[in-house]
């Protein structure tokens, strides 16, 4: 790989042993993928995935200490994935004991490290850092050193930024060195589609189900998706962006998609159209039967598959402001229709702290509160990692949460029925 | 015995018993319980992976097509290496993915005492041939011998 004189000097140790290791890490990372050079990180902010002060990741804290002590700190401020704890989310005494004393006992310590390394602000904890209220929204063509699979796929696909599916820890290495290796989704060639997906459903497909189907089929490849303009239009408006946020998260967690192009909608598809498709691209047709097949294939891993749900999570990835308002309307309407005053299953909506603050300024905040739904900025996945929460019958419309935990997936309409009208 | 030639991602030699997944290894889902709750055998906790679920991964030759899922994946591999609960080696039939590469490279650079040779591009036939329990030897030049 070609290195500039400055990069080579860092690698040779002229800025100290720790910086040499940072550069060596990036060079080896690039070499593994045939990178020809390093390119500067050009986004204003970074986004890191490892937000949780889990006792088990003490090797990460030791590494962060090494970086801090050597003055090898991020050249960019950064946002983080969501915090793992929120006292407003229902949990019993024992669950709380495990959360606070055993699992996330290093949270305060770790947040102290993050502040020294370049944390953007106290509210910068969300997986959806690109939402307007949060403000970490890269521009088209900017090169990022982000991690968080749902944020990377959104930044690449919807915003047209350039970022590989970097891992936790590798994300901050690029930010410290100020450069990332030039390979994969950072390159023009790596952004071309090797799959054509034809969506031929008779109704608007559920975002997280369609994303799951495509993710499981194409894995880490880039799909070019036809047929969604019929359901989403050709403008990246709030509704389309919200849909793509949830869709992308499912492609990234159920497979390993880092970039998709949606015909007539996402920026590179609008600009370059079919020239983005590689010759010999494979074809995948998604119709109603295929979506049903995919949903039916999800294993039910509750001890008692007929158990009454004890908790419901909506918002993985974190909900947008409009999404919160829409869900508030839907829950209110569902309760009115059923004659119930409050949701029948303890329900938590999750969103970014900055979105939560904005939402709380609207009239909808009290409307949502009156339904009994809890609004939180927690990471549902981190909640479910508690060994006393894992066995609980938890339901969700997040295919990401389903993939990583024991939570059971239902479509949004099914979730709405369950929480407002009852039934298993 | 059959030999397969791959590309070295992180160097090293080792002999270990194979565990095989034909689907992508979801690193977070597979390792998180084991790392969190002190399971030294690193029993796979990914209930969506019928090939590996409930099987030990620590000290085994983990044979796989690629890793998938959360971008904490590399950090999870790094932590597994730091805690001595990593596979003996990771052997990829195809080119390595960015998360597994990050984890193994981070361990190689920052944890020099943690050994986990990683070889990729061993070919589809490697994954068709290798079965759980077979004896795997990884040589210095990236050759993988399967007994």
Mean pLDDT metric of chain A: 95
Strand arrangement, major sheet of chain A: 11-10-9-12-13
The dominant shape of chain B is globular
Amino- and carboxy-terminal Cα gap of chain B: 5 Å
What CATH architecture of the largest domain in chain A would you give? Answer: 2-Layer Sandwich
Low-pLDDT segments, ≥5 res of chain A: none
- What is the second-level CATH architecture of chain B? 3-Layer(bba) Sandwich
If you average the pLDDT of chain B, what whole number results?
A: 94
Q: What's the arrangement of strands in the largest beta sheet of chain B?
A: 1-10-9-3-5-7-8-2
Q: Describe the largest sheet of chain A.
A: 5 strands, parallel
- Assess the beta-strand content of chain B as a share of residues: 25-35%
Overview of the structural elements:
The complex is a heterodimer of chains A (424) and B (147). Chain A has three domains: 5-92 and 100-186, Aconitase, domain 3; 191-296, no CATH class; 311-420, 2-Layer Sandwich (Aconitase, domain 3), CATH 3.30.499.10. By secondary structure, chain A is an alpha/beta fold. In chain A, strand 2, helix 3 and strand 3 form a beta-alpha-beta unit. Chain A has 18 helices and 13 strands. Chain A has helices spanning 5-11, 17-32, 58-69, 93-103, 107-117, 149-157, 170-177, 207-218, 229-232, 238-254, 267-272, 288-297, 321-338, 353-360, 364-370, 380-384, 399-404, 412-421, and strands spanning 38-40, 46-48, 78-80, 179-181, 193-199, 223-226, 261-262, 277-286, 311-319, 347-351, 374-376, 394-396, 408-409. Chain B is α/β, with parallel strands linked by helices and 147 residues long. Chain B has one domain: Glucose Oxidase, domain 1 (3-Layer(bba) Sandwich). Chain B has four helices and ten strands. Chain B has helices at residues 27-36, 73-82, 98-110, 124-129, and strands at 2-5, 7-10, 14-20, 25-26, 61-64, 67-68, 89-92, 118-120, 135-138, 143-146. In chain B, the strands form two sheets. Chain B has an eight-stranded mixed β-sheet with strand order 1-10-9-3-5-7-8-2. In chain B, helix 3 (98-110) links the parallel strand 7 and strand 8. In chain B, helix 1 packs parallel to helix 2 (73-82) and helix 2 runs parallel beside helix 3. At the A-B interface, helix 2 and helix 3 of A face helix 1, strand 6, helix 2 and helix 3 of B.
């Amino acid at each position: 790989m070609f290195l500039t004189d400055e990069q080579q000097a860092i690698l040779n140790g002229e800025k100290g042993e720790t910086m040499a290791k940072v550069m060596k890490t990036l060079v080896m990372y690039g070499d593994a993928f045939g990178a020809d050079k390093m390119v500067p990180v050009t986004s204003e902010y970074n986004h890191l995935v490892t937000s949780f002060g889990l006792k088990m990741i003490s090797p990460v804290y030791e590494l962060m200490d090494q970086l801090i002590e050597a003055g090898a700190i991020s050249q960019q401020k950064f946002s983080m994935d969501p915090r793992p704890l929120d006292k407003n989310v229902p949990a019993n005494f024992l669950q709380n004991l495990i959360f606070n004393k055993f699992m996330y006992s290093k949270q305060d310590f770790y947040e102290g490290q993050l502040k020294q390394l370049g944390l953007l602000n106290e509210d910068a904890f969300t997986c959806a850092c690109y939402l307007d209220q949060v403000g970490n929204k890269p521009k088209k063509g900017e090169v990022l050193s982000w991690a968080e699979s749902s944020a990377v796929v959104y930044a690449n696909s919807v915003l047209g930024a350039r970022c590989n599916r970097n891992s936790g820890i590798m994300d901050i290495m690029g930010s410290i060195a100020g450069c990332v290796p030039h390979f994969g989704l950072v390159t023009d060639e790596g952004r071309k589609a090797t799959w054509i997906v034809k969506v031929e459903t008779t109704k608007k497909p559920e975002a997280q189900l369609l994303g799951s189907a495509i993710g499981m089929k194409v894995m880490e490849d880039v799909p070019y998706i036809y047929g969604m303009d019929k359901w989403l239009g050709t403008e990246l408006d709030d509704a389309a962006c919200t849909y793509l946020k949830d869709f992308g998260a499912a492609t990234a967690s159920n497979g390993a998609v880092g970039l998709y192009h949606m015909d007539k909608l996402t920026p590179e598809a609008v600009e370059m159209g079919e020239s983005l498709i590689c010759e010999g691209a494979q074809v995948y047709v998604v119709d109603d039967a295929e979506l049903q097949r995919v949903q039916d294939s999800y294993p039910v891993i509750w001890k008692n598959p007929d158990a009454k749900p004890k908790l419901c999570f909506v918002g993985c990835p974190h909900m947008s402001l409009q999404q919160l308002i829409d869900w508030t309307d839907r829950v209110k309407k569902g309760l009115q229709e059923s004659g119930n005053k409050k949701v029948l299953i303890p329900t938590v909506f999750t969103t970014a702290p900055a979105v939560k603050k904005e939402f709380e300024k609207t009239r909808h905040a009290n409307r949502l509160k009156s339904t009994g739904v809890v609004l939180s900025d927690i990471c549902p996945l981190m909640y479910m990692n508690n060994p006393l929460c894992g066995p609980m019958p938890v339901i969700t419309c997040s295919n990401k949460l389903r993939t990583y935990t024991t939570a059971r997936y239902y479509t949004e309409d099914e979730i709405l029925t369950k929480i407002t009208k009852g039934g298993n | 015995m059959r030999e397969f030639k791959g590309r070295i991602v992180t160097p090293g030699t080792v002999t270990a018993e194979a565990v095989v997944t034909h689907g992508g290894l979801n690193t977070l889902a597979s390792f998180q319980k084991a790392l969190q709750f002190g399971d030294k055998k690193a029993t796979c906790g990914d209930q969506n992976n019928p090939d590996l679920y409930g099987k030990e991964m620590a000290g085994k030759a983990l044979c796989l097509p690629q890793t998938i899922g959360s971008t904490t994946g590399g950090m999870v591999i790094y932590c597994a290496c730091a805690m001595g609960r990593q596979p003996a080696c990771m052997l990829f039939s195809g080119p390595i993915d960015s998360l597994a590469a990050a984890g193994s490279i981070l361990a190689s650079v920052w944890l020099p005492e943690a050994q986990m040779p990683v070889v990729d591009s061993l070919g589809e036939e490697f994954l068709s041939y290798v079965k759980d329990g077979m004896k795997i030897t990884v040589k210095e030049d990236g050759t993988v011998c399967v007994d």
